[in-house]
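Posted in: Structural Biology > Protein-Ligand Complexes

Title: Requesting predicted complex, glycinamide ribonucleotide in pocket

I'd be grateful if someone could produce the 3D structure tokens for the following input. Sequence and ligand are given below.
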Amino acid sequence: MMQVTKPGQLSLAVLASGRGSNFDAICAAIDRHDLNAEIKVLISNKKAAPVLQKAEQRGIKTFFINPGAYANREEYETELVKHLNGYQVDLVVLAGYMRLVGKTLLDAYKHKVVNIHPALLPAFIGLHAQKQAVEYGVKFSGCTVHMVDEGMDSGPIIMQAVVPVYQDDDEDSLAARILVEEHKIYAQSLQLFAEGRIWIDGRKVIIR
Ligand code: GAR
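-- Reply #1 --
Done. Output follows.
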């Protein structure tokens, strides 16, 4: 069994592609002193992502790295890792980062890349998880914070939260209900890393 991070203030990098409500929630938790962390850098793969401006307004260093400018995932992630290495981060936090993560980034940050997914994994992996849940007819769905591995949404699970699915839900109404929980459990999960309580045992996360 291995402790993933030692207790103490976390240095975080955030990777994000979109509006950044999870980024906001993490920042709010830091401001409230519910999360002992500092966001050192935010990197987006989308030039127009609103999250870039949000981070700039907070005085966080931001970068746009265009995957299209690289021949393949390996070259793109080599550039990403080069940027990350300059900030000595403890964890790489994916917050609505809509790209598959490959070996290059994972080898550089083993067990230290975390993601939030808007479903109860292993159900409804990939895109439009909330729509998948509505169409399948499940009565409960939710969100999952997990470590990232080379599969799609398949890494060790850190924390989950459950919400009911109502008969008149559509993708948007379910997504909104799940998002409220995302904003709670992402910061809570990160605080467990800051407390040195996250251990890894094979494919299981043990909280000590
Ligand atoms: C969130 O619902 C997050 O769970 C989801 O994208 C949204 C990002 O919102 N992530 C994925 O689907 C990853 N596969 P945000 O930009 O407001 O945080």
